[in-house]
Design goal:
Elements: E1 9-19, E2 27-38, E3 43-47, H1 54-62, E4 69-74, E5 77-78, E6 86-89, H2 101-111, H3 116-129, H4 145-157, E7 163-167, H5 175-192, E8 195-199, H6 203-209, E9 212-216, E10 223-228, H7 243-258
Helix pairs in contact: 2-3, 2-4, 3-4, 6-7
The protein binds adenosine-5'-triphosphate.
Residues 18, 28, 30, 48, 50-56, 219 line the site of adenosine-5'-triphosphate.
Length: 259
């Protein structure tokens, strides 16, 4: 019998406690009892009230922290630190202002030791995918917020990571740009077939983008709802007849989780 493919992401019995500064032994329980298995090509969106451990979950997958309990694996390999198999996009893109757009996208590729011509070809491909082919020569201070976030996405995608992690990627953008970026990320996901894990406060965004939606409870964060959705694969998810009912159900779960 053929082997089932490894999950793209697997969390088993994951818990995380932060140590409180200056108080020996005192800890803040941020996450507890997280079991999650995500298939390649899915887009998992994590929602939950403030302080429910969403960013902590993403940081554990990114390898910025080691879990206090349990294990995190990406493509069957335990996560022991940050690595090129995971691309990260933050809420406020951390771009290098002295570099051009292309230089920023090439940065990780240069660190990985790729030759100049190869770096350039990959960067140009990614910039075209995010609609910035004509902006490659600009400095990042010449860009709008949405353009900066597109550069950050191109940079995360360039090394071809197995999974892309996005921590509130549109949280700092105005409503119109945010909507446009949601649509762009959905198209990019359909086009590239990448596995994505993102975090948002916006339940509508979660339903528009997530093929899997997980709701975390308030501290410590535990999974209170884990739902598969086909909406992002179907045309314009915001106009789908199931959109409103799904959004209301998830919003209700988030409100209940905050109590
Ligand atoms: N570095 C840290 N040291 C101590 N406590 C922390 C640290 N980072 C987060 N916490 C605490 O862990 C809990 C979970 O935080 P986390 O940022 O993961 O939640 P979140 O759901 O992403 O919140 P938000 O939606 O407000 O960004 C919170 O109570 C927070 O105060």
């Amino acid at each position: 019998m053929p082997h089932a493919p490894e999950p793209a992401l697997e969390l088993t019995g994951v818990g995380h406690d932060y140590r409180r500064d200056g108080r020996r032994g005192a800890t803040v329980p941020a996450l507890d009892g997280i079991d999650l298995s995500l298939d390649a090509g899915e887009h998992l969106v994590v929602v939950g009230p403030s302080g429910s451990g969403k960013s902590t979950l993403l940081r554990l997958v990114a390898g910025f922290h080691r879990p206090t309990r349990g294990t995190v694996s990406v493509n069957g390999r335990p996560v022991r630190g940050p690595g090129p198999d995971r691309g990260v996009v933050f809420q406020r893109p951390t771009l290098f202002p002295w570099m051009t757009v292309r230089g920023n996208v090439e940065f990780g590729l240069r660190m990985a030791g790729l030759a100049r011509a190869e770096r350039r070809a990959l960067a140009e491909h990614q910039l075209a995918l995010v609609g910035l082919a004509d902006a490659a020569h600009l400095r990042t201070y010449e860009l709008s917020g949405g353009m900066r976030q597109r550069v950050a996405i191109a940079r995360a995608l360039a090394p071809d990571p197995g999974i892309v992690l996005m921590d509130e990627p549109f949280g700092a953008l105005d409503a119109l740009t945010r909507e446009r970026m949601q649509e762009e990320v959905r198209s990019l996901w359909l086009l590239t077939g990448k596995t994505l894990l993102s975090i948002t406060h916006d339940v509508g965004e979660a339903v528009r983008l997530g093929t899997r939606i997980v709701v975390l409870s308030a501290r410590p964060g535990r999974i209170v709802l884990d739902e598969v959705s086909d909406l992002p694969r179907a045309g314009e998810p915001g106009t789908h007849p199931d959109f409103t009912a799904t959004r209301d159900r998830i919003a209700h779960a988030v409100r209940a989780a905050a109590r």
